[in-house]
């Protein structure tokens, strides 16, 4: 017999695409379209409806980049449209191709200002409720957002900056019409789409494939190409048996959760994200009115807060659906934050702010941490998740790994302190699923736990730019609930999935340590000014809370609740995983830097006022130290008189020597550190014949994502463009001047106030493109691993490349310090704004190995911000030989410089809280979130070993209580909460009532 399968399939596909898919709507009636262009930033509905609207014809260009155009579309429902006819307004704003969420979008209103739903590239209909013979009007707030990504060639573009974007219209208005949705044809379209997809995934020899093919062929046979609506029911009858055939009992089961990943900023500004939220959530609420089984999950309390402020009526509708259990807040965080770069307290506050909002505004406590798209996941996160009273974690991005494949999809993730959190990594490999047959087959094929469990989760809905699920997706899920040849799809809530998965997999595999993303390593360095703003504001928040709390307890000063909350919410927002990592458009960073400046000013005022109140008025000088370690004689978390160590700086042949009682450092004629001798041990931290403080430049042209990636190949492209132009002594400082191609560098090298560390301040006026600047130190340490500070502890990573996992970590992240050590000797390099680096080793002159630490200072990517990192930057580093805790202290000192208040009444101030016990570090001192006035202390064990100690209140305190991050009593209370017996890296929050 002749093989005619290909011909039959071609006939089926042609019938589907050219006839059925085009016939879902009938009886098209023309409407009147008028527009008004908003001259500047968006305006509220009440202002827009009062403006003068002008007629608009199909084919007319509209919408400058980032502009807003209001459309008023009106018409009359024909009197002949009687009965239960579903009347819909179909609008094409001029969308092209794919990329839903990256083009123009619109929010639709009734004439009285009630939100209906959104218009999106693949969701372009609006229900019309007017009766036959009645007039109707729909107003559309349309955003003419540019597709900055374009074809993803990642060429420099002016579109990401409002000042440089061209003013010409981006879109051409295509059409608007009132039409009738033919429900039989719409159902047939879904029937055929589903069956064609399943058929394509089945083997050619499969009887099921042959059966579907014949059913589709029969359906096409009965369709009248001149009148599809008249024959749609009969065609569906032909397909019914194929759709009714149940899935095998062993088929993979997928819990489908409606979702819309909405980046809080990325290739659009925060301003536009607020409108994306309103559009997406209104779409979702409309779907819930139509489908009783539809469930939707959304994270990011910040986005709910925006909706409450900008669209209170939509928020109230959302609130009712949350109460119904169908609109499900997840995540428990203020935003879907990056987790590599935020500090420990900031990471904790993501949960404090997020969970408090959901509790206070929606009456729910989230249990699932939902972070599908962050660029790697800190090993500190499991403990923070548990401390927030959450129990489950979901991620997706690890599927982007370039080198290694994660061996699990459902597992226990173990953090650096030993805490484990039940984690799911959906094998569908996308958080923007459309429930296609390809996606579901991939989920079944890749599921690592198959044979033990056959359950996974699939988040479906258009995302990144928002939009969310469509009615087509919900209809698809219904057809795939139990369909032969396809995994089974069950619409359900995330908590239902996690509960079922945990029950079915009682002994899951364990993954210990960070979930390092083998991709997007450039995000540790891109947009250096934003990273500085984050680091600076995190520490200002620490200072402001500490000194304001101390002033409130000691002097009765008013605690600045509103200022602190607003500052935290701003900083937390900008830790979103496309803002802080440096992967957004220029507009985002212009706003971010303005926000950081505003926060810094507000917090500096809080600190100044509190310290002035604490210092009193007199003739003394008082030095405040917000660090948890004493600095130059000033007590931790208190104030006193500083006693800097004596230091000597002198020329020595062609170089310069800096010396104190603790160290002797020597710089050569090029300004490189060629020796740093620890006088306690007599050992030199710099390897023989090697040097530190060396600037290295590499060509930085990643293969794929410019601002996101640093590729291993950069090491093959060093550039010999660094030249020293001068080395001179200026008092206690050595000034080194350099040029780097078209850029200039001035370094100031001095000893730290206690004389124990070598400080290096590097001021760079950067004018390079696609170049990577590193600051390198070759250290005489035989280190198997390097230690990098992360939230509430540190993580150790191999300095060798024994395995492919080790090799993939060629660029690593960390916070205030990185350390290499061997038994009995170690060196810490602390910083005040750097997050990315590489740490390797190489043969030592005379035998053995040396450690090479290279801090990544600056990049210069061209996409999506062609001017990223340009201009002046100042970096501060400190190189210290000593124990690990000395390095930890150095990191705090650099980031929390002491503050001096003259004209004080006292020369000492007892800390509000002190800690007895080595290795126990106070991360935050504040007043309780509930306004009770209780003092809250957050601390952790920093060395990675057990520690015992005691918290000593510096005020009359009542009985202390151990709490979760939200300051609620911990289920298991010690006999005395002030007595501490901590495991390695354990995080503890204590609440101390004021007696």
From TrEMBL:
Residues of the Glycoside hydrolase family 38 central domain: 518-596
BP GO terms, sorted: mannose metabolic process; oligosaccharide catabolic process
One protein family per Pfam: Ams1-like_1st
Gene Ontology MF terms: alpha-mannosidase activity; carbohydrate binding; metal ion binding
Keywords: Glycosidase, Hydrolase, Metal-binding
Entry's transmembrane regions: none
UniProt family annotation: Belongs to the glycosyl hydrolase 38 family.
Entry-linked PANTHER family: ALPHA-MANNOSIDASE 2C1
Protein name: Alpha-mannosidase
């Amino acid at each position: 017999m002749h093989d005619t399968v290909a011909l039959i399939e071609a006939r089926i596909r042609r019938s589907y695409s050219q006839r059925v898919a085009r016939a879902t709507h009938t009886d098209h009636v023309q409407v009147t379209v008028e527009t008004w262009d908003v001259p500047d930033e968006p305006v509220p509905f009440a202002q827009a409806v009062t403006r003068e609207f002008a007629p608009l014809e199909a084919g007319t260009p509209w919408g400058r980049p980032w502009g807003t155009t209001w459309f008023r579309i009106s018409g009359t429902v024909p009197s002949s449209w009687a009965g239960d006819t579903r009347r819909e307004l179909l609008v094409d704003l001029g969308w092209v191709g794919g990329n839903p969420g990256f083009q123009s979008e619109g929010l639709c209103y009734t004439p009285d200002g009630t939100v209906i739903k959104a218009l999106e590239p693949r969701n372009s209909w609006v229900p019309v409720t007017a009766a036959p013979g009645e007039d109707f009007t729909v107003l559309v707030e349309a955003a003419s957002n540019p597709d900055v990504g374009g074809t993803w060639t990642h060429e420099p573009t002016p579109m990401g900056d409002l000042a440089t974007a061209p003013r010409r219209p981006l879109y051409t208005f295509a059409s608007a019409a009132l039409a009738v949705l033919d429900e039989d044809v719409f159902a047939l379209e879904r029937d055929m789409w589903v069956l064609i997809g399943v058929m394509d995934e089945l083997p050619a020899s499969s009887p099921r494939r042959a059966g579907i093919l014949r059913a589709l062929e029969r359906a096409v046979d009965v369709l009248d190409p001149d009148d599809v609506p008249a024959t749609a029911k009969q065609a569906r009858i032909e397909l019914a048996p194929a759709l009714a055939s149940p899935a095998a009992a062993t088929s993979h089961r997928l819990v489908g959760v409606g979702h819309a990943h909405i980046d809080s900023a990325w290739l659009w500004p925060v301003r536009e994200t607020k409108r994306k939220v309103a559009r997406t959530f209104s779409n979702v609420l409309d779907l819930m009115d139509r489908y009783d089984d539809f469930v939707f999950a959304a994270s990011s309390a910040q986005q709910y807060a925006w909706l409450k402020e900008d669209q209170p009526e939509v928020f109230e509708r959302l609130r009712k659906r949350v109460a119904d259990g169908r609109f499900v807040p997840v995540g428990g965080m203020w935003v879907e934050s990056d987790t590599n770069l935020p500090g420990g307290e900031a990471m904790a506050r993501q949960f404090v702010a997020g969970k408090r909002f959901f509790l206070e505004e929606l009456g729910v406590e989230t249990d699932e941490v939902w972070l599908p798209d962050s660029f790697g996941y800190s090993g500190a996160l499991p403990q923070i998740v548990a401390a927030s009273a959450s129990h489950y974690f979901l991620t997706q991005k690890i599927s982007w790994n370039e080198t290694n494949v994660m061996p699990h999809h459902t597992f226990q993730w173990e953090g650096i302190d030993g805490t484990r959190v039940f984690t799911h990594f959906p094998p569908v490999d996308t958080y923007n699923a459309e429930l296609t047959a390809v996606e579901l087959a991939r989920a079944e094929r890749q599921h690592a736990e198959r044979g033990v469990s056959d359950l996974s989760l699939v988040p479906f809905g258009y995302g990144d730019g928002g939009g969310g699920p469509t009615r087509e997706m919900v209809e698809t899920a219904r057809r795939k609930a139990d369909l032969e040849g396809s995994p089974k799809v069950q619409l359900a809530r995330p908590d239902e999935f996690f509960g079922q998965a945990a029950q079915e997999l009682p002994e899951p595999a364990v993954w210990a340590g960070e979930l390092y993303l083998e991709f997007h390593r450039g995000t540790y360095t891109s947009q250096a000014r934003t990273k500085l703003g984050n680091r600076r504001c995190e520490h200002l928040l620490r200072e402001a809370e500490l000194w304001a709390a101390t002033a409130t307890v000691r002097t009765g000063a008013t605690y600045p609740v509103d200022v602190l909350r607003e500052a935290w919410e701003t900083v937390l927002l900008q830790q979103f995983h496309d803002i802080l990592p440096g992967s957004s458009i220029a507009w985002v960073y212009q706003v971010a830097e303005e926000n950081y400046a505003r926060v810094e000013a507000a917090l500096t005022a809080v600190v100044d006022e509190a310290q002035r109140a604490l210092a009193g008025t007199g003739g003394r000088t008082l030095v405040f130290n917000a660090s948890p370690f004493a600095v130059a004689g000033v007590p931790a978390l208190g104030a006193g008189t500083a006693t800097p160590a004596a230091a000597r700086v002198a020329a020595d042949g062609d170089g310069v020597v800096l010396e104190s009682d603790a160290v002797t450092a020597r710089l050569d004629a090029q300004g490189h550190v060629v020796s740093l001798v620890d006088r306690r041990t007599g050992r030199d931290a710099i390897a023989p014949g090697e040097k530190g403080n060396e600037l290295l430049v590499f060509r930085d042209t990643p293969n794929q994502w410019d601002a996101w990636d640093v590729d291993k190949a950069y090491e093959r492209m060093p550039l010999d463009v660094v030249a020293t132009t001068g080395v001179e002594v200026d008092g206690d400082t050595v000034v080194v001047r350099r040029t780097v191609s078209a850029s200039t560098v001035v370094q100031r090298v001095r000893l730290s106030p206690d004389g124990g560390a070598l400080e290096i301040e590097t001021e760079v006026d950067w004018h390079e493109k696609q170049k990577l600047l590193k600051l390198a130190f070759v250290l005489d340490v035989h280190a198997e691993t390097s230690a990098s500070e992360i939230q509430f502890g540190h993580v150790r990573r191999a300095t060798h490349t024994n395995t492919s996992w080790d090799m993939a970590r060629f660029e690593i992240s960390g916070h205030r310090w990185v350390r290499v050590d061997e038994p009995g000797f170690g060196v810490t390099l602390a910083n005040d704004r750097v997050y990315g680096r590489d740490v390797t080793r190489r043969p030592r002159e005379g035998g053995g190995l040396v450690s090479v630490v290279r801090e990544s200072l600056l990049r210069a990517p061209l996409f999506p911000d062609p001017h990223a990192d340009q201009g002046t930057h100042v970096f501060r580093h400190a190189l210290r030989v000593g124990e690990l805790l000395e390095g930890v202290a150095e990191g705090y000192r650099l980031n929390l410089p002491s503050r001096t208040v003259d004209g004080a009444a006292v020369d000492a101030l007892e800390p509000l809280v002190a800690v007895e016990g080595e290795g126990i570090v106070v991360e935050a001192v504040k007043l309780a979130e509930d306004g009770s006035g209780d003092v809250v202390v957050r601390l952790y064990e920093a060395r990675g070993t057990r520690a015992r100690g005691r918290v000593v209140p510096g005020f009359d305190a009542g009985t202390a209580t151990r709490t979760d991050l939200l300051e609620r009593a911990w289920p298991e209370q010690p006999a005395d909460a002030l007595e501490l017996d901590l495991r390695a890296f354990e995080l503890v929050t204590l609440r101390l009532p004021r007696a």
